[in-house]
Amino acid sequence: MRRLLTIGINTIQGYANPAFNFLIVVFGVKIFGKDDWASLINVMIWVFFLSFIFGWGNRDYLLRTYSKNPGNMYRAFFSNLFSRSLLLPFSGIFFLFFPVEIAIWSVILICLLFLYNSLNTLVIYHQKFGAQLVAEILGFGIIFGSIFYLETFELETFLQVYCIATLLKFIVLSAQLQYWKEPISATISLQEFKLGLPFFILGLSGWLISKTDIYMVDLYLKPSQLAEYQLLITAFLMLQALAAYITIPFTKHVYRVSDEVVQKIKYKLYLVSLPLTILGGFTIWLIMEYFVKLGFSYEYYIVGSSIALPCYFYTLNVMELMKNHQERIIIYISFFAFFISVSMIVLLIEIYEIFGVLLSVSITQWLVLLVYKLQRKFG
């Protein structure tokens, strides 16, 4: 019962972040318009990209380190944190592409996200999903409330709001984890980058699959279409991510239990996949067409829902490969999917625009599922 409660809280917490982002985009677009809100999206996608780079695969690398040597957990945490901080000066690249005021607040936001995201390994290991949920609700409340409080859209102002929200999230979560009470013993070393590199490459390969589409929409289509696509893909990625959030509490256990137990977990995930996807797709259609009024036909929502479904069937295959130190296979599959996705988007985006991008992402996801299952069967 306690494990089910933990899974439930973690699922809500993990689901809350994309759900909150979705609501922010929905009301941001509705109140300030697609073009204005697209200017914020244009900055934020690069903020999140650098935040991902500076993470350097720390989550999976540290979770494996914690499971092998729990007594040395905080030394590993601080050593990794301080070593990765050497990357932060590279965020100055924003000054080359954005006005000075926008670049300054973007860099501050990247630094705050760096600190907040670094706590994620401690949250997972100590199962503090409820504390993280409280932090996410607080951050969401500040940003969401600002959308209704501010009368006009100013890009710099909203970046400041995101900075305040992220800082408060970090303070709240830090107060719950109380990691500062542990002896701060750390070594700043380039070895951390070497050890984290396989996990970073692994994460990069996944990022290329899940994020490339939004950057190509930013490149090829109009700002208003960027906002529309952000709405759609955020909603459908919520469905996709739900599979991962359901399995996160089992992360440290998958490394320890037998293949038979993992197989039982797979079957349970398979059973909930179709009902969740159908219900989620229908809900997205209702919100987008009767509240946001995007004016897209039902084909968009069928294809969008089909993006989410395959993930439920291959998430644990990915974890099994990581358990057996076969990350290289995941990387090969991910880069294969990246090139397929980019090729299809380039072919379809100018003709079919947003629908072409959704179709490309969907086909890529089903190909990824096929490859993982073939690899599992034939090794």
TrEMBL record:
Keyword Transmembrane: yes
Keyword annotations from UniProtKB, A to Z: Membrane, Transmembrane, Transmembrane helix
Entry keyword annotation includes Transmembrane: yes
Top-level taxon: Bacteria
Name of the protein in its database record: O-antigen/teichoic acid export membrane protein
Ranges that cross the membrane: 12-31, 37-56, 77-98, 104-126, 133-153, 159-180, 192-209, 229-248, 269-288, 300-317, 329-348, 354-372
